[in-house]
Amino acid sequence: MKESIATVEEAFRELALKTAQMPTRASLSILDKEGWMGAMPAYLSKAGALTTKIVTSYENNPARHKLPTIMAVIVLNDPETGRTEAVLEGSYITAVRTGAVSGVATEYLAKTDATTVGIFGAGTQAQTQLEAVMVVRNVESVLVHDIVPEKAARFSEQMSQRLRTEVRAEDDRERVAAESEIIITASTSKVPVFKGASLSEGTHINAIGSFTPDARELDDSTILRAKIVVDSLDAALAEAGDLLIPMKAGIFQRDQIYAELGEIIVGRRKARESDLEITVFKSVGLGIQDAAVARLAYVKATRMGIGDKIELS
Known about the structure:
The protein is built from eleven helices and 14 strands. The protein has helices at residues 2-17, 61-65, 90-109, 124-136, 149-163, 173-179, 220-225, 233-239, 241-248, 261-265, 287-304, and strands spanning 20-21, 26-30, 35-44, 49-58, 70-77, 84-89, 116-120, 141-145, 166-169, 182-185, 204-207, 226-230, 257-260, 278-282. The protein is globular and about 60 Å long. An eight-stranded parallel sheet has the order 9-8-7-10-11-14-12-13, with helices on both faces. Strands 1, 2, 3, 4, 5 and 6 form a six-stranded antiparallel sheet that branches. The chain starts with a helix and ends in a 9-residue tail after the last helix. The model has no long low-confidence stretch (mean pLDDT 95). With 313 residues, it is an alpha/beta fold.
């Protein structure tokens, strides 16, 4: 995770400095199956990473088919020739890169002495989110809430052992919001998961669960109280229901979005300016993140002799 955070930070630096190419994600909704599919090409010229990810999100997979909600495959190409170098299982990379960007955002936007974390959603994404936050902050306690209490209990037990940190399941969602200095929303909810009025001053939020215009994890109060930083302005204005829904209602404006994460990384905009600020990093997920972490995985795998060679003809 530490390596992934570093490589994702450099990817956002490339995006801000315009050495990266990344069109807006092409996506479609499979309404009769309650599913979604996206195609995400990206190129990082400094890192030498050229990839395309095909990702799906099916809300009913865990209950109906015993499959993950999110599944993906990533194709890595040689940027010199265009030759396909690797096909990578993308679900884990998606979880790692999403955690990594929240690690970057937390490093720049959370209070330096923050020690308490609250998590909404107890799936795979929540695991890598917590891993990443623990790389950049000295986390002492974690509260996790899930609409399925058994999932929260299982998550807390597994992550307590794995990370050697106190992780506790909590049924009261407003308590999670009130007592956490860093909040992670990694749910599949289409409606807000806590009330903005519950937030304490100085809280930082990584909002990563919703990525379609009709879904949101944060309510109007949270958005209006916070300094808003996005992964990509274009992507957020196309997909981030957390922002688009209050914009459509006329209570939030585009110019109230403070910055893109890359602008903060390269120093064009200031990060946290006060321990009293509430900050939100809203991420819908970018292809540059996949490119960065897929390239890292490929380089490490080839050095270690991991992987199977196949012929496509």
